[in-house]
Design a protein that fits this description.
Order of helices and strands: HEEEHEHHEHEHHEHEHEHHEHHH
Shape: globular
Radius of gyration: 25 Å
Largest sheet: 4 strands, parallel
Helix content: 25-40%
Number of strands: 10
Strand content: 5-15%
Structural class: alpha/beta
Strand order of the largest sheet: 4-3-5-6
């Protein structure tokens, strides 16, 4: 409507004013609603109560952080473990977030100052007093391992549920299970399952039931020569390995994320040193060149399916000749981590061995 002085006069209808009032009232009502408690099963099988919605998260280890990127929930992360700075290329902007101490030794004060709704830690580290102290401040602690292949899918599903990211979790689970099924179906037709010596990060420290290394060995169709031991990370002797005479040897390496590597030089050097160990020349795996080194990034964790694929190729070169683990890895990094595919994660084949 234009007045006699030519000025514009904006008129709002009563209907518009009423709708605006309703929207404001609805917004204020939502803000005043109490948080809804949700019960979650943690990695220890215990029930944990988490108030939802979860808007502020501290990721106290790399597996938790990787899982949060899978669920497209990185915008909710307000604090991260200190060791993230060792892998700047892989974590990119996440390295700029406030640091909350080491994954084994969290800084309680730094965490409390961030006022998180949820803190994600491993089942064993840090100790139980951690949630007792944070619980007194009203901060929930959820213990999920997210590195053991045997429980990975279950834990991703639980985390997706508590974060309201069920669709994102299901997308990953569909992808993961389809690749796992492919490996399982091919292994099922094999007439011989190789004996495997799996060495963890320290020399002559092998893996038994309860470890991620044991899990991926079984998933890839290997017979872990330490599979009957009671400890998850038993120490063995060089003579014992020689006596067991494994068909394949696989070693885990931790040089920092393979994402930052541009060649396999370190992996190859470690492999060569294993093959040169005293009296190991009599081991079948050494004689045939079936000794391999794998980066910790694909050894265990949310992308351990990539490690399983490499093991399956090494255990059954003919059955898996057409499977390219690096292609699976590229899809995982681009689709579920939102980063470009790059890096080196395994040793080169020994001369004369199938790649």
């Amino acid at each position: 409507m234009r007045g006699s002085g030519g000025a514009n006069v904006q008129m709002r209808s009563p209907c518009f004013q009423t709708m605006a009032g309703v929207l404001i009232l609805l917004f204020l009502t939502l803000l005043s609603l109490p948080a809804r408690a949700m019960t979650v099963t943690d990695a220890r099988g215990q029930q944990v109560t988490v108030a939802t919605p979860v808007r502020r998260i501290v990721a106290q280890n790399s597996d938790a952080l990787e899982a949060l990127r899978i669920l497209k929930a990185q915008d909710r992360i307000v604090g991260v473990y200190a060791e993230i700075l060792r892998e700047p290329a892989f974590w990119a902007e996440c390295t700029e977030l406030p640091k909350t101490g080491g994954w084994r030794t969290p800084n309680l004060e730094a965490i409390a100052n961030l006022d998180p709704d949820l803190v994600l830690v491993y089942s064993r580290h840090p100790g139980e007093e951690f949630e007792q102290k944070l619980g007194a401040l009203g901060i929930a602690v959820l213990r999920l391992d997210l590195y053991k292949p045997a429980t990975l899918e279950k834990e991703i599903r639980e985390l997706g549920r508590v974060l309201g990211k069920e669709n994102e979790a299901q997308a990953f689970l569909d992808w993961h299970s389809s690749h796992l099924t492919l490996i399982h179906d091919r292994i099922a037709t094999a007439s011989h399952h190789p004996k495997v010596y799996v060495e963890s990060y320290f020399e002559l420290s092998t893996v038994g039931p309860g470890s991620g290394g044991h899990d991926i060995c079984l998933l890839a169709g290997g017979r872990n020569i330490a599979g009957d031991m009671e400890l998850p990370y038993p120490k063995v002797t060089s003579e014992w390995v020689v006596t067991q005479n494994p068909d394949v040897i696989v070693k885990a390496a931790s040089y920092g994320n393979g994402y930052q590597a541009d060649n396999a030089e370190k992996f190859n050097a470690l492999r060569n040193s294993i093959m040169a160990r005293p009296v190991w020349s009599s081991i079948s795996a050494v004689q045939t060149g079936r000794v391999h080194v794998m980066d910790s990034a694909i050894w265990a964790g949310p992308r351990s399916i990539i490690g399983v694929a490499w093991l399956a190729r090494w255990f059954y070169p003919k059955q898996f000749d057409d499977i390219k683990p690096e292609r699976w890895h590229a899809e995982y990094l681009e689709r579920f981590q939102g980063i470009a595919h790059q890096g080196v994660y395994v040793s080169d084949p020994v001369s004369g061995e199938s790649p």
